[in-house]
C-alpha cells in the first residue's frame, strides 16, 4: 500500500496530474464566465465518450494518431530538437500509403505492411530534411519544420490532383482491400466504429521508442546529444548524424500515423484545404506526456477523450467545443510552469516527507 | 503589358502583405533581445486580430471611421495582457519558454473562437466589418507615376509599421533602455551586477512583444480580411519568427525579411492574375513562399547568432 502511495505522490506523476486538474478548473472558470454550467458540460463530455460502444470505439480511433504524432515530437525533444513538423510528416505518410495502397495489387500480407512502411519512410525522409538542414547549414529546425508543414500540404494536394484524383472529384480512389487495416470483427463489436490495427502499432511504436532510446548504444548517443551536444562531440559522437537520425526516426512515427489513418480509417485521400491538426496536437501530447513513451500514451488518451467528448459538451450543454482547447492550453501551461503547480502540491510533498521519516 | 504598372502593383501588394509580419517580427525582437524565446507570436497575433475585429464591430456604428483605430489600440492592450502569462511562466517560474509559448498558441486559438461563439451567438467568425482602415495617400507624393501607387498609397497601418521599425531601431540601439534590454539578453548576470532589474526588463520586453504582435494581427483583420475567423492569422506568427531569425534579430533585418516574405506572397497573386496557372500547378504557387523561405534560410543565413542568453531563465543564485 505504501508503495502505491509512493507512486502517486511522486513528483513526475503529481505535477501533470495537478496540471490537468488546474486545466479543468481553468476551463470551468471560462465556462462560468461564458454563462455555462461547467458540471453539466464535463458530465456531457464523459457521457459522450463512455456513453455507447460506437463513441467509445471512435474515441480510441481519435487517440491513435495522437500517440504517433506525440511520439514523433517527443523523440526529437529527447535529442534536443523541437519537431513542429509532425504535421507535415503525418501528411506525407498519408500520401505515400495512399500511393502504395491504390497502385499495387499484392496479397494482403505484403500489401498492408508495405503501405505502412511507405508511410514510415516518407515521414522519416520529410523529417530528415529539417534535420539535414540543421546539421549541414545550421538552420533552426523550428523554422524549417513549420515551412515543411505547408509544403507538405500543397505537395500532397498536387500529387493527388495530378495522378490519383479523377477529374471533377475531390477524393482519390479507395486503396485496395489488401491494403486496408481495419479490424472488421472488432469494429462490429463497437457498432462499426472505425477501429484498426494502427492502435496496436501505436503501442508497439511506443515500446520501440523506449527500447531504442534507453536500451541501445545509438539511443544513448541520441539522448547524450540532446543533453549536451558539446560534451557529446568531445566524447567522439557525430552530433550532426545524430540530429538527422533523430529527425528521421521522429518523422517515421508521424508518417506511420498518417499511413494508418488512411489505411485504417478513411481508405482514400481527399484534397486538403487545411492541416489535419494531428501534428500540432502531437506537440501538446508530447509536452503533457513528459516526452516519455508511456506518458505520451496517457496524454494521447487524455487529449483524445477531451477532444472527442467536446462535441458532446457542445451538443448537450451548449458549450462551444473550442473551450476544450483552452483546457488543453492551460494543462500545457501548468506543465511548463511546474513552479506554479509545485506551490499547489507543496502541502502534499511536505506531508510525504513527514510520513517518510 | 505595362511592366511599370506590374512592378508598381507588386510593390504595393508586398507592402500590404508585409505589414502584419513587420509588427509581429518587431514584437518578437523585443522579447528575444531580452532573452525570452517567443514562439507565441502566432497566438498573440490571433488575440490581436480577434480583439481588433470585435472592438471595431462594437464601435463602428457610433464612431464610424474612427472605430478601427479603437480596435487597433484595444488589440495592442489585449496583446500585452495576453503576453503576461508567458512572462510569469518564463521569467518568474523559469519554465521552458518554448513550451509556455506553445501553450499560449493553443490558448489563443481556442479562446478567440470560444469568445467569438459566445459574443456572436454561436457563429464561428465575426460578421464582416463595415468600417475598416481605408488606404491613405500621402498628398503630392502619391501622384508620382508608378512610385506613388507603390509606396505612398497604403493602409495607415503600413506607414505605422515602417515608423515602428525606425522607433525600434532607435530604442534598442540608441537609448539606455535598449542597452539594458540587450544586456539582459546577452549576459543577465553582468546586467544584474550593475544594478539592472533583469526580471522587470524581461517582463516589460515580453509585454511590448505581445502588444506589437497583436497590432500585427489587428492589421490583418482590419485591412485585408475585414473579419476574424479561425484562419485569419494562419501561420503568419511563425513566419514572423522566421523573419526575425532571418533578419538576425535586427529591426532593419527583420523588416527586410518581412518584405521578402511579402514579395513571395505578392508574386503568388501576380502569377494567378497572369494566368500562369495553366503552366504551373496552383499547388506549386502556394508552396512558393515556404520553399523560398527554406532555400533562403539554408543558403543565405547559415548559422545565425541569437542573443547569448536566449531561452535561459535567469536565476539570481546561479553562476
From TrEMBL, chain A:
KW Membrane (keyword) present: yes
Tagged with keyword Membrane: yes
The organism's place on the tree of life at top rank: Bacteria
Primary residence: membrane
GO-annotated molecular function: transmembrane transporter activity
Transmembrane segments: 12-39, 59-78, 90-110, 116-135, 147-167, 195-214, 246-271, 283-311, 323-345
Any Pfam family hit: BPD_transp_2
Subcellular location: Cell membrane
Keywords from the UniProt entry: Cell membrane, Membrane, Transmembrane, Transmembrane helix
An annotated GO cellular component: plasma membrane
Membrane topology: Multi-pass membrane protein
The name this protein goes by in its record: ABC transporter permease
Source organism of this protein record: Brevibacillus antibioticus
Automatic annotation (TrEMBL), chain B:
GO cellular component terms attached to this protein's record: plasma membrane
Name of this protein: ABC transporter permease
Taxonomy of the source species: Bacteria, Bacillati, Bacillota, Bacilli, Bacillales
Subcellular localization: Cell membrane
Organism: Brevibacillus antibioticus
Top-level division of the source organism's lineage: Bacteria
Membrane topology: Multi-pass membrane protein
Transmembrane segments annotated in the record for this chain: 6-27, 39-60, 66-89, 101-120, 154-173, 203-222, 284-302
Pfam family, one: BPD_transp_2
MF terms in GO: transmembrane transporter activity
Keywords, ordered alphabetically: Cell membrane, Membrane, Transmembrane, Transmembrane helix
